[in-house]
Amino acid sequence: MSSLEVPVAAKRSSPSTPAVKIRRSLSTRWISGLTLATLLLLWWAVTAAEWIEPLFLPSPEAVLAKAWLLLTQGYMESTLWQHLGASLGRIGLALGAAIATAIPIGIAIGHNRIARGILDPLIEFYRPIPPLAYLPLIVIWCGIGELSKVLLIYLAIFAPIAIATATGVRTVDPTKLRAAQSLGATRAQLIRHVILPSALPDILTGVRIGLGVGWSTLVAAELIAATSGLGFMVQSAAQFLVTDVVVLGILVIALIAFALEMGLRALQRKLVPWHGQSH
Amino acid sequence: MALLELERISAQYPGAAEPVLADINLSLGPQQLLVALGPSGSGKTSLLNLIAGFVTPSAGRISLDGVPVQGPGAERGVVFQDDALLPWQDVLANVAFGLELAGVPRPERERKAREMLALVDLADFGTRRIWQLSGGQKQRVGLARALAADPRVLLMDEPFGALDAFTREQMQELLLQVWQRTAKPVFLITHDIEEAVFLATDLILLAPNPGQIVERLQLDFGQRYAAGESARAIKSDPRFIETREHVLSRVFSQRSAAVRQEFA
Predict the structure, then answer these.
(1) Most buried among A155, A186, A222, B96, using CB within 10 Å?
(2) Residues A108 and A14 in one domain
(3) Chain A contact for B241, CB < 8 A?
(4) Domain of A258: which CATH number?
(5) Distance between CA atoms of B174 and B60, rounded to whole angstroms?
(6) CA nearest B163 in A: which residue?
(7) CATH fold of B4-75+186-263, please?
(8) Is A278 among the domain residues?
(9) Domain range spanning residue A138?
(10) What's the superkingdom here (chain B) (predicted)?
(11) Total domain count for chain A?
């Protein structure tokens, strides 16, 4: 039987396919790397030739030097690490709260008709509103402290995770549910052993989208009302026309967003290796 | 004594004019391998879903060991046509899944799962991932999983329908071996006539509109295989061919009767 074919086929294909994959991913990465290098070079050339005043675009060296200064001495009474820590702390707290509440609520929406009837319109009502539009209301209710910023990001992250979870739960393979039921699964066991793992790829996609929205909301919220954080750093530097800090802040914000996205993709590959496999 | 008993079972989907099954009487006892054969629309899948408890009959009574069947349960193990395994677990955990649900401690359930994997000739496949298996291997894992939960009866929903002809033949032989070794009563549905005749100790032929049993046969080809005769020798035996042709003609006479009725 085919029990013999599988290991043989796996052995034969393993040296050839990764080789092809590596070569292709390398060439794509080369193109991306080259683009990045060209842009940096252009930046350096434009500033070195003094075509643009440093007030509008500081040179890469100036930004790097400023980065060192910010790391060691700080800006506006906090170092870069402290600003970064403040921003990451806020999004981390909001993400934790969103995951802890949005997944159970998403399961309820996907699983239960009444829960869907109550919660679906509420989420769909507030989801399309840009978070900054209801920030003033949150500030009126909760003040300008940490709570209002965390709450704002929490709301921004909550909707994508809840909706993705509900979608994942609704699209669980009914045969798998029946199989578990005929093995004696209770309702709670169905959720724990079949529904939740089935929906995990969708949940992780929801977290990815939520984190992206949350990060941009956070920085925007810090631009408006904060005394620490990357958004605050950029905003206050702009007020004093300290352009190198502004550029540095933007670069760090972009880097963090990129790192979050990459980290979540890696997590997705690790947690749901069956996703996308033919089975 | 019958284990599983169906008395005057009818089933109708809400809103449908015709019932899918009408007045079905059926019993399944120990040592039996009951095969329900019928064309599509004859209600054989509905029949299995009723016994499994996935749907409830509109009339009649289903009982197992004298206890009425209500909803799905571990005492009626099901092997599905398409892959119903859980890809987030490896093969061993899939086979042990029913025991895990029942709260059996890990060493105990893994020992049992290994035993079942050996029974379906997959002893070395415990750590494989589900997506690394071929179609036939998946069905064998599905069979091992159903057996590991130690059900009273085994229900098989066109278990080999999606397999290629070679694998299907091997799976039929494997099923007979497993059936003989575990002594579990089996209820299997199929639309493959040769498969039905080869496997069944008891064959029921279903006809559509509404689904009803039009013929019951007692056969011994499976037992002959279990007694050591080769599958090919049995399937080329004139008596096997004769039985197969008889069943085939019954299916077609039902079909043409239905067509005549429609045009009358």
Answers:
(1) B96
(2) no
(3) no
(4) 1.10.3720.10
(5) 35
(6) A2
(7) Rossmann fold (3.40.50)
(8) no
(9) 60-271
(10) Bacteria
(11) 2
What integer pLDDT is reported at residue B220 of this predicted model? 92
Give the number of other CB atoms < 10 A from CB of residue A11: 9
User: Quick one: CA dihedral A218, A224, A225, A231, positive or negative?
Assistant: positive
What is the per-residue pLDDT for A21? 57
Q: Which residues of B touch A189 (CB under 8 A)?
A: 101
Residue B257: the pLDDT is: 66
**B59-83 tens-digit pLDDT:** 999 999 989 999 999 999 999 988 7
- Closest by CA to B58, choosing from B5, B25, B22, is B22
pLDDT at A2: 40
pTM: predicted TM-score of the whole model, two decimal places = 0.83
Residues A26, A139, single domain; the answer is no
B167 close to A (CB below 8 A): yes
pLDDT of B186 strictly over 90: yes
Over pLDDT 70: what percentage of chain B? 95
Cβ proximity of B2 and B28 under 8 Å: yes
Same domain, A126 and A243: yes
Question: A207 and A74 in one domain?
Answer: yes
User: Cα–Cα distance between B67 and B121 in angstroms, integer?
Assistant: 35
* In-domain check, residue A279: no
A188 at interface of B, judged by CB pairs closer than 8 A: no
Mean pLDDT of A145-150: 89
Residue B259: pLDDT over 70:
no
Integer Cα distance of B28 and B159 in angstroms: 19
Interface contact flag, A3 B121, Cβ < 8 Å: yes
Do A33 and A124 reside in the same domain of the chain?
no
